[in-house]
Amino acid sequence: MGRGGRGTGAAVNALSVTNGPTKLVAMADVVPAKMNDSYDKLKSQFASQVDVPPERRFLGYDAFRQAMDALKPGSVVILGTPPAFRWVQFTRAIEKGLHTFMEKPVTVDGPTKKRMFALAEQAARRT
Q1: Is 28 exposed, middle or buried (0-12, 13-18, 19+ CB in 10 A)?
Q2: Going from the N-terminus, what domains does the chain have, and what CATH number goes with each?
């Protein structure tokens, strides 16, 4: 989620691992140009690992829901979005049974930090 500079960078990092088959199957962003630039960069660098047809490139503030719905339980979702959106997206990932990688900072205030700790406990109970 979040195909800006950091989200794309995290996808590059994930696709660069050599100890397993890693594949990008869905993308989400709120800015069409960022989505397109990210897709073009990733596809040119990791052609065999990027399988994101137009119907799995989601746009809008709720695009993260559609992208997560396209994943199988046990898949990994990368949250490279601003911290204000993280708790909502992490909640969805837990509901869908997805492993989650979050860029830092994960939170920027006390109330959200408490919410994220509670969500982390909820996620741990699911494993």
Answers
A1: buried
A2: 5-126 (3.40.50.720)
